[in-house]
UniProtKB/TrEMBL annotation:
Residues 75-197 form the MPN domain. This is DNA repair protein. Keywords: Hydrolase, Metal-binding, Metalloprotease, Protease, Zinc. CDD domains: MPN_DUF2466. GO terms for biological process: proteolysis. It comes from Fructobacillus pseudoficulneus. The keyword Lipid metabolism does not apply. The keyword Membrane does not apply. Belongs to the UPF0758 family. Pfam families: RadC. Gene3D superfamilies: Cytidine Deaminase, domain 2 (3.40.140.10).
Amino acid sequence: MKKQVFDFYQILEQDAKKNTEIFSLYFPENYHFLEMDEDTRTDFIAENPQMNRALLIAIGMGFQLAKESRPVLLSARHSSLVGAFAQEKLGDLKQEQLFLALLNTQLDVIGWEVVFVGTLTEVSASPREIFQRALKANAYAIIIAHNHPSGNLRPSVQDKRFTKRLYDVGQELNLPLLDAFIVSKDGYWSMQEKGQLWEHLLDE
C-alpha cells in the first residue's frame, strides 16, 4: 500500500516522501484499517486535513469495492465442471450463442456473459470485444463456450480459426484463453482436453 499512498500524494502535488512517512507512522505495515480507532483517525487527519481525509475516504472506498467483488459461479480447475456447466446453460438453445467465462487468479469463474447470438465468425464475434470485457472485469484468464444446435460437437474450421485467434491475442495480452468448449444437449467438446488449443489447432 505504501506505493499507492506515495502516488496519491504525488498526484495531488504534495510532498509525497514526507506525507508517506507520516502515514507509515500512524499505519505501519500490516495495520488493520477496519480496526482504526477514532483518536488515530483524528490525529492523522490533523497532520494534513484536506489530503489525509481524502486518503482515508479513498481507502474506505477500496475496502467497500473489495467486498463487492464478483461472486464465484464455479471452479474452472477441471474442464469437466465447466463443460457440464456450459452444457446446462447452452445445450438446449435453438440458435448458436457464444459465451465468455471470466476467471480470477484462483481459476474460479466470476463472470458468464453472452458475447453474441448467431453463426460464429470473427466478424460477428470480435476478439477485441471479448478482451475488452475481460480487461474491464480485471479477469486473470478467459474460457469461451458456444453451442452447436445441430448436435455435432466437433469444431468446424471456423471454430478452430477463431479459437486460435483468441489464443494468440490472449498470449500477447497476458490474459490467456484456457479452454474453448462446444456443447450440445448430449455433451460437450473441450479443445483443451482434445489437445487442440495450442499447436496444430487448424490441422485437424
